[in-house]
Amino acid sequence: MSEAGRRGGDLFEPVRTRRAFEAVVGQVVDRIRAGELREGDLLPGERELASSMQVSRPTVRLALKELAEAGVIEVRPGRGGGARVASVWIPERLLEAGAPEWRAEEIFAVLEARRAVEPRVAQLAALRAGREHFEAMRRAIDLEAAAAEEGDWRKIVQADLLFHRRMWRAAGNPHLERMMRDLGRELIPALEMAMRTTEDRAWAVEIHERTLAALMRGEMPGIEAVMDEHMSYLEIICEDALGRRRVREIPDFLKGRPAR
Q1: Exposure winner among 115, 138, 163, 258, fewest CB in 10 A?
Q2: What's the burial of 49, exposed, middle or buried (CB within 10 Å: 0-12/13-18/19+)?
Q3: pLDDT tens, 194-219?
Q4: For residues 52 and 197, what is the distance between their CA atoms, to the nearest angstrom?
Q5: Where are the domains of the chain?
Q6: Topology of 9-91 in CATH?
Q7: Which residues share a beta bridge with 73?
Q8: What is the pTM for the complete model shown?
């Protein structure tokens, strides 16, 4: 693991909403969940954050206070101080929209959209990932394994998404990454259904281990197979939890299998 350090303001982007306070909190939370900010990293100073996000310094100060009270960052005053990431685990109250109560049709539609895109993103990641990308995915799996040992399903959901976000980043296409990030937020209700038992939590760690191994080998059929297994497991759990099957069956071409 590389040493923690001060991160630059280019990690953040201008706020384009009137709810500036929530947007500043949301950007910091998002960068932590994406693995771009790690435990011990020092955030830019208030002035640089305000300039990067194009908000006032009092707004930044309030946002940092909220994050500190939630235990996400630690603020130390004086020379050599600043706001430092204290934990990569985000309290539920700070997670944007948490896990909305969606209808079964909406959840199944999100799972279908994932099938249409994520296996190709995974294959791009295998072609383009460097050592640093694989190491980032490895760290996400280690966090997930620790959370599984602890039995905290909320932390496992965060670590699960972190693994996928590092894989999406490794694909090297910011448009696909942004598309998958939006889809990932909508996957949260499904992921929460899938992390409630000891067996499910252990399986989540194991499938990510095998996914990473397939990515590192760069073997496209192997990536296709492990992604199909990965997605099928979640789909079956959702059908069981929701007490109904999908109205529309998944076509063979979305399963990575030749059409009959």
Answers
A1: 258
A2: buried
A3: 887 888 889 999 999 999 999 999 99
A4: 42
A5: 9-91, 104-254
A6: Arc Repressor Mutant, subunit A (1.10.10)
A7: 85
A8: 0.76
